[in-house]
Amino acid sequence: MGFFSKLASFFKGYTEIDEDFYEELEETLVMGDLGIATTERLLEDLRKKVKERKIGDPSECRELLKDSMKEMLRSVRSDDMYDFENGKSVVLVVGVNGVGKTTTVGKLAAIYKAEGKKVLLSAADTFRAAAIEQLDIWAERAGVDIINGVEGGDPGSVIYDSIQASKARGVDMLICDTAGRLHNKKNLMNELKKINTIIETGYSEAKKETLVVVDGTTGQNALSQAKEFLEVTNVTGLVLTKLDGSAKGGIAVSIQNELGIPVKYIGLGEKLTDLEKFDPDKFVDSLFA
Ligand SMILES: Nc1nc2c(ncn2[C@@H]2O[C@H](COP(=O)(O)OP(=O)(O)OP(=O)(O)O)[C@@H](O)[C@H]2O)c(=O)[nH]1
Ligand SMILES: [Mg+2]
Q: Which of 150, 173, 235, 240 has the CA that lies 20 to 30 A from 23?
């Protein structure tokens, strides 16, 4: 059951749309991880619709609110947002430690492989012990090849080797796992810049997709994390993981509204098949179901 399902009884508890109604609604939306800015935008939208359409019955607001959320989510999406999945592409997967990057790389590999694409994984997290073995296991599960570096080695050179291998083997999707933690945050961001340069100069003919992975159970923290990556790299999409562990889900709406970047995939579990493309209508319906 979605967090906003409780709104059904909430709407029934009011006989008219007054300031108390808006105030309580605002509290509920903020509690559902929508954040202040997005909540205010949604309420503004709702007030406008209520006024324009001369709505007096609070229960009608439920559908209006759902529509506003759907419109909000659609507005950050474009017809070509999945274009990188067709043709030669590099998918760079970034995010802070523990959010689900490596798992997402494995799941993406399985999806693309099932679509008949030639997939190669790049184990560019050379920092954390056992990160390479972890990705190796995912490569095996998905049935795809992997280019490994050595622990403590230079991530840039793993990326470089992976690009050469992609060209030589006619790879469609090169998916790169990266470290979530280096000695400090500045190091992490500098490393990402280096990796970007290597991809841009070494594989300029490929489409480039940079996915920031955030953990859906961390609420508004996910938003501030994603913002830091936006400052150093050209983020083209978000992946929201662990939604199976959170009933709230409002973060999916607020993060897209506030960053203007679409969530392209959602993680719904720890298994290979637990990754889906984000569907705004389906998602909003499930929040209210
Ligand atoms: N329930 C659930 N767990 C997930 C999901 N995605 C990842 N996980 C779990 O989250 C934990 C961390 O996942 P990783 O893929 O190792 O995360 P990471 O970002 O690569 O971590 P670092 O490499 O340490 O930065 C693991 O226990 C995963 O099984 C998801 O969608 N749902
Ligand atoms: Mg990892």
A: 240
